[in-house]
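The data are passed on as follows:
___
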Amino acid sequence: MHLMEKRVNKTRTTAMKASIPRRFREFFWDYPFSRLSWNSDRDLIILRVLSVGDWNAVQWLWRRLGNDELRSWIERRRGAGLNPRQLRFWELVLDLPKPLVDKWLQAPGRQTWDRRARR
C-alpha cells in the first residue's frame, strides 16, 4: 500500500470514529446536530444516548466505549444525568458497587432532582 493510500484510509477511519449516526438527531433536539462532534461533544453525546437514547443507540455507544470506559464515565459523574432506574441498570451491567450507587442516589441535591423528574 502506498503512503498516500495509508493517509486516505487513516483519514477515513478517523472520520468514521468521530461521526455520530444521523438517527441520533432526535436525541439532540436542542443542539445544532450538524455541529456536534464526538471529539468535542463527547460527554454530551454519552449523556444523551444513555439518558434518552433507544436500545440501538445505547448498544452503539457501548460498543464504542466498552465496559471500562463507560464505567469510568458514570463513576466520574457519580451517575449525574441518569435517572435511578437507568443508574441501577448500569450498576448491574457494569458491576458498579451497590453502596457507591446508593450513596450517589441518596445525595441531597440528587434526591430533589429525582423527585421533581417523576412528576
About this structure: Residues 4-17 have pLDDT under 50 and may be disordered. The longest helix spans residues 55-77. Helices lie at 3-18, 38-52, 55-77, 84-93, 98-106, 108-118.
